[in-house]
Amino acid sequence: MHAYRSHTCHDLRASDVGSTVRLSGWVHRVRDHGGLLFIDLRDHYGITQVVADPDSPAFKAAETVRAEWVICVDGEVKARTDDTINPNLPTGEVEIFISDLEVLSAAKELPLPVFGELDYPEETRLKYRFIDLRRETIHRNIMKRSQIISSVRRRMTEAGFFEFQTPILTASSPEGARDFLVPSRIHPGKFYALPQAPQQFKQLIMMSGFDRYFQIAPCFRDEDARADRSPGEFYQLDIEMSFVTQDDVFNAVEPVLRELFVEFADGKRVTETFPRIPYAEAMAKYGSDKPDLRNPIVMEDVTDHFAGSGFKIFAGQIEADEKVRVWAIPAKTGGSRAFCDRMNGWAQKQGQPGLGYIFFRDGEGAGPIAKNIGEERTEAVRTQLGLQDGDAVFFVCGKPDVFASFAGAARTRVGEELELVDADQFAFCWIVDYPMFEWNEDEKRVDFSHNPFSMPQGGLEALEGKDPLEVLAYQYDIVCNGVELSSGAIRNHKPEIMEKAFAIAGYDRQILEDKFGGMLRALQYGAPPHGGIAPGIDRIVMLLCEEENLREVTMFPMNQQAEDLLMGAPSDVTAAQLRELHIRLNLPKS
């Protein structure tokens, strides 16, 4: 027999009754039932109940074991009585009567329990992550992550893509988030950077004559943590294709993602064909370029019903500035003063003066706004939005680029409060037609709004002849349930377009040569039209595991302060190491 096990703790069934077996694993819990000791023995695969009675030569050893000790047991498989069968365990029809027990490793008193799935502070969970990972839910999530990545690789290969690896040590880029820098020992004073993404390399792969690349790529960004973004590093399904249009990218990627979600959705519905929503439309209808389409609420512009009305707060703003708009957030079933007042209070907590509303009852509108604008205008609002008795509508007024995010948050709040969101689905969409440039208010200049290597719609002619803030790009995002899974673009493959686009954003030719020389040179030697995308693996897994924090689907995450509490990173280094790298510390004064 094998030194440690003949079976795993998932294997044994009623057909194994009478067999002598050997199992090894962790003591999940111990129960003393009047002289009989019941031990739930757990390994990676499952749990099996093992039993020691006072007549067993292993009884004294069994009495000593505690939670999370690692033991090896020999024994006979016996059938449980009908009243003791555990239908929740695959091994629940059998148990092992122990004839021998060896303690392979004892455990100290635990800083957090494995049995019971109790909620514990993040600091404890991350410092003792090796224990935290033994717990059922997170162990299952990590295994699901492995299965998802395996499925992605298979699907990409079947779709005709080839997996290539790109460098981890590369050059710093002035775009995007902060780089993680790595000092060079043999080039004093110079630094490598860990890649924020393989963006330039995957484009260079296309320019090198390869086609349909993919990679499960690690990416590194020195940015603050969020629930849906790990500090430090994350993984993405990096994709690039040659001789493609935007539609070609969509047609290649959409089936992979859809079928992946169908495989792991546990019966939830998955969007059949992903709708394509222009950025401007998404902002106007949902107040976000990451709309949660499970929420049926669609906002509408109702400015005309307030212009010149008796509601002077809105009418005055409309008259003073033609850019001012009034957006309506319809709230089916929300037609009570109590709910409307709750939403108004919520808005004030968000730093807003309030949230105007009308609610409908007895065939008419009610509330201060309805009284001020009059019956005819109130009816026009109701008709436009398709509302009826028992419904309500909320209003925001101002310049959309200022209030859109608040309006979007209000839409989300209304949908959740009224339980309008259909949680039994994965609702996908493409967001398309992003602006190429945006106004950087802090630096008072035009800046790239998305990926600087994107192809502007209209090419060089658009860059030379249009207001930069009106130029759209072949840039797109995939969104699922309000979570941005990916950004992508058709790339600019002509050097003169790249030079002009960067010039508009304030980068002169010398900066272009210094920072993007490799890319610029490659474009000058025959570059194919190409494009790609990079769905986030961590966010995909988070959605499919129905978790709200990436910590629950990442094996060894950092905390919110970008610290690895398990390994003690970041850490001090020795003076000798610093001398070798020609670095002297200049620490801030405490």
Structural description of this entry:
The chain is of the alpha+beta class and 590 residues long. Helix content is 31%, strand content 24%. It has 17 helices and 24 strands. The strands form six sheets. The protein has an eight-stranded mixed sheet with strand order 6-9-10-24-23-22-19-12, with helices on both faces. Strands 1-2-3-5-4 form a five-stranded mixed beta barrel. The longest helix has 23 residues, at 136-158.
Task: List the main descriptive attributes of the protein structure presented here.
17 helices, globular, 8-stranded mixed beta sheet, 590 residues, 5-stranded mixed barrel, alpha+beta
Q: In what range is the share of β-strand residues?
A: 15-25%
User: How many H/I helices?
Assistant: 17
Average predicted confidence as pLDDT: 95
**DSSP helix fraction:** 25-40%
The number of E-state strands comes to 24
- Which structural class should the secondary elements be placed in? alpha+beta
Could you give a short account of the major beta sheet? 8 strands, mixed
Distance between the terminal alpha carbons, to the nearest Å? 62 Å
Using the CA coordinates, give the radius of gyration.
30 Å
The shape, in one word, is globular
Low-confidence stretches: none
Strand order of the largest sheet: 6-9-10-24-23-22-19-12
